[in-house]
Amino acid sequence: MTTSVLKLLSLLTLICFFNADIFAQAKNNAWFRGTMAYKVSTQLTADIEVQHRRQSGFTDHMILGHNLMYSLRTWIHYLPANELKISISPFASFSHYRIIEKAEDEIYAPAKETRFSIAALWQKDLFARFSLINRNAIEYRILSNQSRNIVRWRNRAGLQYNIKPGLSFLLYDEVFVNAAGVQPGHLVDHNRLGTHFECKCLSQLKAEFGYIYINRLPLSGTNWLKENNLMLNITFDLPN
Question: What is the pLDDT of residues 92-121, one digit of tens each?
């Protein structure tokens, strides 16, 4: 049973990554995130998170060629029940580099963002190691290159398969909707179709790696952009 499921999951990943329509005329990016987590109690955890994203240039497809984003973010997670996690980000700072669509985009200085977020993650066990995942979040975004602050809602719905203790696979879709602060026609911000593996490498170390396909409508543009994103996240649990 496990071998068959693994083959199916691998096939789904390959279909997402090598689909000709997805890969054609898309930007190629790489996302990295590192998190240090401290468990205050059985129900309360505090995180500090650092992100860096790279993007391909105007004339090349090298995913590590240019800066795309830097961020520093704090999180507080509370578990009121086994199936529910409430998360609050009291502060986050971002540096967003321009998405490179033409040669001059490579030289622009980054825009700054301050963000505050609250999220709720619900996970329901189904059968034979499968779980349903649903995460809703509200973000308040203060962007240096926008005249109005933006309220954005995001929802991630997915299916997780627990391959064995410490190893799982997730397939999900996440939609981002601008609820306030944007021009007409920019209600939908972007959509992510993602797949990744999560591995508990050591007792205090967790790694996530996978692929995300994005359809994005930039706040300052009218053309939808397509992106292929390879991602790697590392989480280290600090000793109590």
Answer: 999 999 998 888 888 889 999 999 999 999
At the second CATH level, the architecture of 2-238 is Beta Barrel (2.40)
What would the mean pLDDT of 118-146 be, rounded to a whole number?
95
**pLDDT score of 20 more than 90:** no
List residues bridging with 161 in a β-sheet.
130, 169
DSSP labels for 194-235?
EEEEEEEEETTEEEEEEEEEEEE--TT-SS-EEEEEEEEEEE
Task: Name residue 137's amino acid.
Answer: A
Is the pLDDT reported for residue 14 higher than 60? Answer: no
**pTM, whole model, 2 decimals?**
0.88
CA distance linking residue 186 with residue 207, whole number of Å: 34
Q: What is the pLDDT of residues 197-219, one digit of tens each?
A: 999 988 899 999 999 999 999 88
The CB-based long-range contact list for 165-168 (8 Å cut-off, 24+ gap) reads: 165/200, 166/199, 166/200, 167/197, 167/198, 167/199, 167/200, 168/197, 168/198
Rounded to 5°, angle at Cα 128 from 122 and 133:
15
**One-character DSSP codes across 106-174:** GGPPPEEEEEEEEEEEEEEE-STTEEEEEEEEEEEEEETT-SS-EEEEEEEEEEEEEEETTEEEEEEEE
Given the structure tokens 């590192």, which residue do they identify?
A: 34
Q: Where are the domains of the chain?
A: 2-238
